[in-house]
Batch of 4 targets.
Target 1
Amino acid sequence: MQWNVVLTLLVLMGAIAPTAYRLALNKLAEAPQTAAGATVAQPGQNRREGCPGCDLANANMQGKDLSRHNYSAATLTAANLAQTQLINALLADANLERANLHEANLQGADLTAANLQKADLSQAQMLHATFIRANLEGAILSQVELRDAGLCSANLKAADLSEASLYGAILRGADLSGADLRGADLRYADLYKAKLDNANLTGARMEFATLPDGSTTDPGFVNSVNHTQGCEPVAEPEDSSENS
């Protein structure tokens, strides 16, 4: 009797298996594929949250996870963003004057042309962040992590960059006049055409850095690590002898 049950089950499994296999193949065929065979993300799947252009002055967003959110051109003056996660966030043209970004995580964030005048970014993580043409005048950037960050043509007048990590940062054409760079790590940084008038570089590490005149601190070294980083090229002065 038991053998009859086993044989019946085997017959049923043999009949069902091909049908299940065909259904699975049909489902796979219906899924959108890339040229390499990977499934394509559906429309809206990667849409960013946020509030571009919104007035969020004095808002309290401390400790929130706003990674990949879009706050481009938003007003965030005096906003509390301390310890906030803003990884890969869009903050281009945003007004963050006097904002509190203490210990915020801005890795990979885009702050192109943002206004961060007198903002507190102390101990913030900003690896690979973009601050091209951003206004950071008088900002507190002590002990920040700005390795490989793009700061081309940024305004850093009188900024506090003491003990900041600027290893490999691109500071071409940046204005660091009167900045506090005591104990900062500027190894491999690109300071070509940057302004360092009255900047305090006491104890700063400058090994292999590219200086404002294009020279380097170490013989034999030619270019800095990330000499472009999306920065606009600094215009070379015209040779007067060619025009005469």
Target 2
Amino acid sequence: MITPSFTKTQLDDIDQQIEINKAVALSKFRLKKVEQRYFMDNLAKQQKIILLDKVFTPSRPVMTREFFFGRFNEINRIFSAINEEGKHIILYGERGVGKTSLANFMNTSTQFLATKVTCNRYDTFNTIWKRAFEEILMPLTNGEWEIDNVSSEQVSLLENLLYDNEEIESSPTVIRILKKVSIPILFIFDEFDLIEDNLTQIKFADTIKALSDNLPNITLLIVGIADNVNELIGNHNSIERCTTQVKLPTMPDDELEKIITQGLEKLELTIDSSVKSHIVELSQGFPHYTHLLTKHSSKNAIYNNSNLVNKDHFKIAVEDAINDSYESVKESYRKAVATVKKETDFRDIIFACASVETDEYGTFRLADLQNVLSELKQKPVKPQSYAYYIGKLCEADRGAILQRIGVKNKYRYRFQNPLVKVFVLLKNYKPITI
């Protein structure tokens, strides 16, 4: 075997090339590690963003128990009513306080068989109950509905108990069908306020009374926007004894804080305490805006590789929340302030209306605005100087952004859509040192 011979120069060149190859290999190895770390970091980031969209849901009601926080008092009252035979529930309140989210929670949390129907303006007593019966799939044995030891051939829908082409015109038909049921059922009728047929209200009141008297294992939960029960289902004293009336108020601050902290825990994020306080303050008791502001603040933190939601993330989130607000809310504000002349007067007055302290119904007096406007304009302001603008803001050409309540000389005012109030506060938010 012949051993090749090399000069010293050649050997030095070979050693140098070996070192170069080692350096290149190490560089490639490190680059691969960086690429892998970058990929993993981006994968983790995207996974957090996906989870973020489930935890904070400003564009839709909360759909599952896992992401529902707060409302303990109202939940306890509703559960107590469900467990009391012959009792039904009417859940009402203003727009944006989380009624549908609570209805969804009840739909998945009770031990009863439950179904939820979302009403619309064209619905009648017949269409609502037919959709409800279409949702209930139950076993049938010997003419009675039972739940154990049943084959698939014995399963049917409640709607199949209707006669051919039968319409559900009144409570006796509902009672006839539900008499076949031997287990408790919870029927949830959401957005009941949208129904325009007044006769449907009357028929539902009759049905509540009939169910309470004859079928105590059936419970109705009626949900809708209203200031009082009469607005939702009419003035029917006969059902007062068999209903629990639950008004859903704006959410207290401590429960809004739980939405923030418990939601962020699922994302393995924390939040600056002062940022949390600002989100709660700006939300004004409306969980929609708590979800909206926390979601955008968290997204900014995640994209900046931070596990702490800080003031910089929040400041950007305010602008994001304004842009991401409902179009109807943005349009209401635009119509209210849009004018060539004295535009700032409308802006200032609307901001004062959003900032002034209100009563439990969200209303204020004309005189209540005096101190707020005086401080805003940094000069004394009298009610007669802004009464004209308040009147205009109640009219259609200004979007009827305000609602006038009461009688002349004792008028009180409030925002037609309370979510507009929060939007106004966001539009006028001034970044400060937090």
Target 3
Amino acid sequence: MGTLLFVCIPWDHCTEYFEISTSNLPQAGSQLQTREYWHEEQELVDYIVHCRSAELEGDSFKMTLSYLATSNPDLARKCEAWGESTIRLNLRAHSGTASWKDTTDKARNGTVTCRVQSNALFESVTHRETQITARPGQGLTRQILLNVYGRCALTGEETPAVLDVAHINAATDGGKASMANCILLRTDIHRLWDSKLLSIDPAGKVSLKPEASERYHDELRGAALKPQVLKHVREALERVS
């Protein structure tokens, strides 16, 4: 059985994320989906990329990915950086590098160190309810939220072990594990949300039902989502309000 690896590449103007399985590594000629968080625009976008070559030697895996405007027509008008990335990963040490070669602007070229984490890390801190109900993309979404925000959206708690991915629109109702439908919540706050004792209106303001303890009413009095978080999930909140 293979290990699912979550790869994070901190490019200069964006951070790229994708996942691969050590038992089913990308092959030359295959397609992958990667996600990028554009720092300045505060926007998360998906790319279709082409694997031009892939080589496995022992624990070392190298692949070259091609990013084409023709394969991503929705992004062609917004994105100027197209080219190739060569990614070298040590599958045992969970480390690696990524090198970018731009098609038109050599100033964008460069090499950065990848952050690589295994699914074991995410399984160890996943809410029990999430383990029972499989949610595609949950691990990758959690990694993105941890890297972009790094804290509970309502309390500011920063300990990863007690931070859950909370769906605005529930997975059982077709809600996707995406940045537009998910926020990080402290585990106990997540329970309040799933139990419908806590709600968040489209303006990001929090309300608690009387059944929640006085401690929660005190802690969350006046709490609201930060503008950066609200920007991504406002439409999801409007759908559940």
Target 4
Amino acid sequence: MDSSDRNRAKCFIYDSPKCTAREHDDIILEKSYENSFTLVLQTAKKNVEGDWKCFHGSDKANVNIHLMKGTIYSADIHLSGEIMKKTTKNKFTLTCYSCWLPATESVNFFVNGGLEDSVRYKDGKCYKKRKLCSPSECTCSNEGNKFTWSFLSDLSFLEFSCEMRFKDEKTSTFSIQTANLSYNESVFQQKITTNKTYAVLDKNIHIDGGNLNVSYIDKFTTS
């Protein structure tokens, strides 16, 4: 959806990748082996600035386009938790997930504001810091975008966070996304996801006469 909330393209990937552009001059480039689609559009400069959105099931990715500041990507991440009651300490199992592939295919887990552990996927294996994960400690998806991590504690109130870092090679854009979850005696409560973005001018933005050519890449992965 463009900055005016108009649907510019619709894509399906169930049987075979297929996309349909809603505007006559828009072009869609498909890479089925990467499960990615590129929307190339031409529009007046005044119509491009603002928030553009891409939906993938229940997940959403945002990109903010500003001609002076460049293109800023925002990749949503999600944090959920399960608890197993034990005699002395409770076992908390956290799941951190994003539709986008994080840089270095890794995640940081925080407890009460402090970095507690890091989990990463490399060469088909899952690591907890520098040690291989055991299934009871941590897991990684084969896509490198979903991680679980377990933590033991006897505290009744806990603040959990997971942090993923994203990089867009084409625009030299860096984004740090943090999902937050609190535990209050017996229940988990979702909190606001925070985002820090570091960006330079998008090299895929070209001004040609009175029109603006923009390439926007959807890099969703499946789980």
